[in-house]
Amino acid sequence: MSLPGPALGLDFGERRIGIALSDAERLLATGLTTIDRKKHPDVFAALATIVRERKVTAFVVGYPLRTDGVERQGAKTEAVDAFVAELKTHFNLPVHLEDEAFTSSLAADSLRRRRPASRRPKGPRDWARDKAEIDRVAACYILQDWLDRAGTAPVPPPLGPGETP
User: Any idea which fold 7-151 has?
Assistant: First the structure.
């Protein structure tokens, strides 16, 4: 049985895109990078490099849902829909949508707990760096949620006595 290969998790934002990568077995998500869209307006070229170098086999994009699980109508949903459509035209890879509810606040809380008070943001540059890190960690939450729910290949049941594959 072949491995499914790594999946790339994306926390899409108008300003930044947080990126996480799974292992080839799709068990664990790890933060990879954040693309600042002002500094790198050709997001798809940056993603193409990552896809090629990391041998990515699928995308998982955070999707805004309401807390009751219903699609949230509005500018954010439309922007994500447009981004997903572009992903599909640029790459011949599956694109999965995963609920992104609370991922940024979970990421911010996680980072706050890990940092001593002396290393908390003091100026605008620190804040920008923290926002990029928050987006990267949010992408981890999005990807890990998908991996835990649906990302691993199904394991075939064990064969009984005398059965052959």
Answer: Nucleotidyltransferase; domain 5 (3.30.420)
